[in-house]
Design a protein that fits this description.
single chain, about 325 residues, alpha/beta, Rossmann fold, 2 domains, six-stranded mixed beta sheet, four-stranded antiparallel beta sheet, 10 strands, globular
């Protein structure tokens, strides 16, 4: 579904956001992407969405090489994607129904198909009774569900969620990821950037950790020595038992002997200028999105909270499972 081949991205200010990334995400996978601020997560998503182009390497999305795709074809690639933002990106003067229907109107759907599809999608996210409400009349969790409905309404082959739980309370965060998991079970590929360790630990999905522009851990490569933690029965239990839960402070120094002191910090939301006012849905817009990266997102010098090797990092962040002791006869270590 998504393939990166030796992909590197360097911005005009000289910052190397990604370095020689090789990655495969299969159709139907659910992937958490984690890492500290400035690690390269946003650049990764922007390359997938064709907002940015790599300086070297190739990127394939659904079999299409998007690294050199003509600009006029980018909107058609984005129609395969549904995008969920941290700050919702809803249109306040439109009702819930119209916010979702707008995504269909953009791609030229008929009024009949809109009348049929939108109520179904709203019922899928549990908002059929809020169809005539405006975004300002909704809670944070409800607004994010509207954003999810909008992302789903055109039946995309993948959902890209950039910190979708960043502006809602912990219990509702689990509700949103539950919805994404249900969508994933129906065959849709899901990429989700998050800083919330309780979500990562509770939902047993593939986890990719990016640091300083490189992939330092990927549970898909650790099947023999990675065991996911026990799944909690309720969101409340997960939060209560997870010492790593909360917004992480990127200024905190990492101490190897103290598990959980990784210092994740909430990444800044995308600027309002990232999308035109008359087209708030970048997955469907016809105009090209700006490609300039704010310099503060990728500082030249960042605190390095990750001192161990990739395997140790993933074991400590996700769940530890001691390796078997060395066999005295063969001298080989089984992993």
């Amino acid at each position: 579904m998504i393939e990166f081949r030796n992909v590197s991205k360097v911005y005009n200010n000289g910052t190397e956001a990604l370095h020689n990334i090789n990655l495969n995400v299969e159709k139907g996978e659910f992937v958490f992407i984690v890492g500290s601020s400035g690690a390269g997560k946003s650049t990764f998503l922007k390359l997938v969405m064709c907002e940015e182009r790599p300086n070297s390497g190739q990127i394939f999305v659904d079999g299409v090489d998007v690294s050199r795709i003509p600009k006029r074809k980018i909107p058609y690639i984005r129609r395969k994607m549904g995008i969920v933002f941290q700050d919702f990106r809803l249109i306040d003067h439109m009702t819930v129904y119209d916010n979702v229907a707008f995504a269909m109107r953009v791609v030229g759907a008929s009024p009949r198909s809109i009348r049929k599809r939108v109520p179904y999608i709203l019922s899928l996210v549990g908002l059929q009774h809020k169809a005539k409400h405006y975004p300002t009349e909704l809670s944070g969790g409800e607004r994010q569900r509207v954003g999810l409905a909008r992302a789903l309404v055109n039946n995309p082959s993948m959902i890209i969620a950039d910190e979708p739980t960043g502006n809602i309370d912990p219990a509702l965060s689990f509700e949103i990821v539950d919805l994404l998991s249900e969508i994933n079970r129906r065959g849709t590929t899901v990429l989700m950037v998050t800083h919330e360790h309780s979500l990562v630990k509770h939902f047993h999905k593939r986890i990719i950790q990016i640091h300083s522009g490189e992939i330092v851990a990927d549970t898909a490569d650790m099947q023999e020595n990675y065991a996911p933690p026990e799944q909690y029965a309720t969101p409340e239990e997960a939060v209560e038992n997870d010492d790593d839960y909360a917004e992480y402070d990127n200024q905190e120094t990492y101490e190897p002997e103290e598990k959980g002191a990784y210092g994740f910090q909430e990444e800044p939301a995308l600027d309002e200028g990232d999308i035109p006012e008359d087209m708030p849905l970048p997955s469907f817009q016809d105009e090209d999105l700006p490609v300039e990266e704010p310099a503060e997102i990728y500082p030249e010098e960042a605190i390095d909270p990750f001192q161990d090797d990739a395997e140790t990092i993933a074991q400590e962040v996700l769940s530890e499972q001691p390796l078997p002791e060395e066999e005295p006869d063969s001298g080989e270590v089984k992993r």
